[in-house]
């Protein structure tokens, strides 16, 4: 999707049309997580300081991020694609996916891509760019070249004219740190990398995948398959204190409470539970440190997880100021994985109430019954910008921070 976060905000608020927009929180340390295409044309990029952008763009409009809105729109787009065009779909990130569509010729592929592009714009009002090729790598490279709101098809004969003059940092999968190492070996462009013959040097950069990387660049790596319906490895949330570092205990516990509410809501909304819990603290050096605990019983219960989180916090916190907090639940499985039944006429204690709720939900195949305390928690945790939060469709990283839009 093109400038996805900005496009979602424009969809939600038509008054933002034709404005110079950056998505960021209003803190002195804030950076832009997304921006309108007009700002990109002016040379700005995601990750730039909001203060710097403001100093150069007087009519800049800074919009607070609404991640639940972006999740909801992404959910609608991916469902539309799956139900209308292809059920072979790999969700790559919040605003990117791969579709497998068989086409008898290039004209059919281009026509189909135009149908997809027009349908997303018409049904959901989000612009997108589409890259077409015979490998995921080349399709992604083609999409980057097609932005904004274009369609590009890449065959083997197109690789050199389309990509060979690109700087290595513009190659999909190569970040700035890798680019610096490549530059040190006099590799500055896509062409340089393809034609580089020092295999030991390439292995020192890419490890055992060096040959695969070069084959992908040449268009020879064509046996990749889409990863369909990959389950999240963990669910978490983090908070960075943007105004100043915090050492006040009550403030930190309040922040931890909000983080656990978010994590618990995400677990419950996806019918997931876990038994590995990780607390993360970001110190003054901006480094994340963590402590982990594994328990026997799987859970997605707020009170249980909050208790574990506080235990980890007090065992790990050195009573000094910290810059951020994070919490993650992993080793996940669905709440319906356990196979047991109960007698509804057993003595009803708290654990029996949980069992009754589980049994009914298990038989219905979805979570329709819940305790009043859980319902109240969900109402507090639900996003205020939209009516409901739909399930996540992409893997979350160690702190569930949404990847900056490129």
UniProtKB/TrEMBL annotation:
Keywords: Nucleotidyltransferase, Transferase. It is an enzyme of class 2 (transferase). The keyword Magnesium does not apply. PROSITE patterns: UMUC. GO terms for cellular component: cytosol. Its EC number is 2.7.7.7. SUPFAM superfamilies: DNA/RNA polymerases, Lesion bypass DNA polymerase (Y-family), little finger domain. GO terms for molecular function: damaged DNA binding; DNA-directed DNA polymerase activity. One of its GO terms (biological process) is SOS response. Residues 1-175 form the UmuC domain. Belongs to the DNA polymerase type-Y family. This is DNA polymerase IV. It comes from Metamycoplasma orale. The gene is dinP.
